[in-house]
Amino acid sequence: MGEAAAKHAARLIAEALAERGEAVVVLATGTSQFETLVSLTSSSGVGWEGVVLFHLDEYIGIGADHPASFRKYLRERFVSRVGTLKEINFIEGDCEDPRAECGRIGALITRRGVDVALVGIGMNGHLAFNDPPANFESENPYLVVELDEKCRRQQLDEGWFERFEDVPRRAISMSIRQIMKSRSIVASVPEARKAVAVKSALEGPVTPLCPASILQEHPRCSLFLDTESAALLSGTYHVER
Fold this sequence. Notes:
Layout lengths: L1 H19 L2 E5 L6 H8 L9 E5 L1 E3 L10 H13 L4 E3 L8 H15 L3 E4 L22 E5 L2 H9 L12 E5 L1 H5 L3 E6 L5 H9 L17 E5 L16
């Protein structure tokens, strides 16, 4: 599954580089992206020196070297493996003023636009850290958001924190509307624990109560599942194994 998602993403990135000499890429983090990022960083034929990197979200109040920091995650699992990038734009979650940081990183991404966004879907149906009920209306590229209990428990269960009390209650997240402005979206969603969220996102109504359901409305969104995450779907789909 991850290899198939990575091949598709690499092709889209290469197309943007061929057309404009630059590709703006947004990366998701978390355990669901492990396989995809391993395969993506091993892709041949991608001129990483032309890639501008953003990411979806970051906890508020933890440093860049914290074990759960998404900046640390991306440095170790992506940046260190692909070499020189054209530009890296990390969200500084430990800044003094999170709303000002939303404005700073938002201005950068607004000037560039996004060619390819790699995303996941949370157990509660969240897209980035837009937990239900998500804000479908804000035009701000990045938002300060509150993390609900199910989201925070997912982070604990994935091993990023030692205690539930350590999981931050707030984060900076790319907004739903900004994600939907991406020219192409590649969603990687493995594991049985995501099956309910996947079914709601694909076969339920488009609603802020399942933020990932908005992906139904994107004209160039490709969703990569494994057998377990697709287990509850009633439609006919091609499942990558």
